[in-house]
Amino acid sequence: MVRFLIRFFVSGVFLGLVVSTFTGCSDPEAKFSEDIARADELIDEGRYDSAINILNRLNEEFPERAIVLNEMGRVYEAQGEDFFAGIYFEQAGRLDPEFSESLLVAARYFESEGDTERALEVVDDYLEQYPDDAEAWRFSANMLADSRRLQSALSAHLRAERLDGPARNPEYAASMGELYLEAGNVAQAEVHFETALEEAPADRFRALMGLLATSYGEENFARSEEIIGLLEEEFPGAVESSALAIAQEQVQLWRLQQETLAQEIAALEAQRAADEAAAAEAEMSEEEEATDEAGSTAEVAGQPGGKFAGLDVSQAADEEAMEEEEVEIELPPPPPPPEPTTYELAIAAREGGNFDRAVPLFWKAVQEDPDDAELWAELSKTYLMEGDPENAEIAILEALRREPSSLQYTLTYLNVVQQSRSQARFMEELESAYNRIPNSPDIVLAMARAYAQPGGNPSNASYFYREFLEMAPNHPEVVAARRELNALP
Fold first, then answer.
1. Topology at the third CATH level for domain 168-270
2. DSSP output for 73-136
3. 340-408 and 25-130 share a CATH fold
4. Tell me: the pLDDT tens digits for 156-171?
5. What is the value of pTM for the model shown?
6. Which fold has domain 340-408?
């Protein structure tokens, strides 16, 4: 009996092990997880060939599994095969949102391998999912700048600056100044170079060279001379060996001309002083002669038969007073009207449809007061009226950076983006604005209308229309909003 029980117990244990083993092997997902864990260990141990064998098998058995592709990317990354690592990281990021951060890793590898176009495409996809990643925007901006797509590079930098907060990030000020300078926007280039000069010591040389380029380009030789002096003091020989060596030569020639002119002016001043002294001496002699003649006339006037002969004293005084009253009094001319400000001139030019004059005037006004958000907003409006939404976007972003909570500037920015960017990008910006200012009826209505577009989301549109109607029953768009709500499918 005991032997029977022992045999029964052993048989039961054996059967349990067999069943357990069979069950484990029959669960593909459990086996998949075990193989992934094993491949992960092999990668950490540096046994890359063994890891890749497991992963290749898994990729055949379980195609389009993002975790397998991501692990393959890790293998190639560890082996220094950056391009192939990028390919697998990109595939993993596109297949599964859980691995979407791998898109940025892939973009960096493509960029390091010289495939800038592919890197830009991948980082754009990453930024659609992570629009608040300032460093990714900077990475994109640098690649766009290298590709000579200056306006897009500036837009990417400005997106990053919005994320940095209301204060400009000085770390990138010199780079943005150089981009603005290449784009021909000297006024804004100077603003960024000055920021770099004051707040980014590591970029002091680039900032000084940028300011030299702008001042020399504007023929401001006095400022150029000042900057060259700083460069010679801090970076001896740098100007002579640069493309701006001609500026130094021109400034030296200008200084020589100024000294020659100063000598000529000094000589003219000396001659004028001598002439004035001679004139004064001659006038003194004439006055002495006139005094002598006046004495003789007084004697004659005192005798009978003079001008008032035959009149008594009071009558003579009255006659003399009447003659004085007849002298016409000349009033001073009225003061001239005040000169119009640069801003007023810019507005007048824009209202007259002269955008070629209005835009430079607005830039001059911005240069005079770069912290005035309204000036940036008016510049953006002018660009938009001119049909230049890209520059309009750059200008309104500057206004928003100075007043990030402004509803007016937010709505203007959304209007610009709607005209200059894709529908997906517009929706991204619109949702971001709604998250920041959820109590704005205008933004809620914009959300409703965006979702009501063909291919949109009628359910979301209905929600936002009702939200708008409840929030702002007296809004001027209420009637139109009700009509649009009733027309939803």
1. 1.25.40
2. HHHHHHTT-HHHHHHHHHHHHHH-GGGTTHHHHHHHHHHHTT-HHHHHHHHHHHHHH-TT-HHH
3. yes
4. 888 887 776 545 567 7
5. 0.55
6. 1.25.40
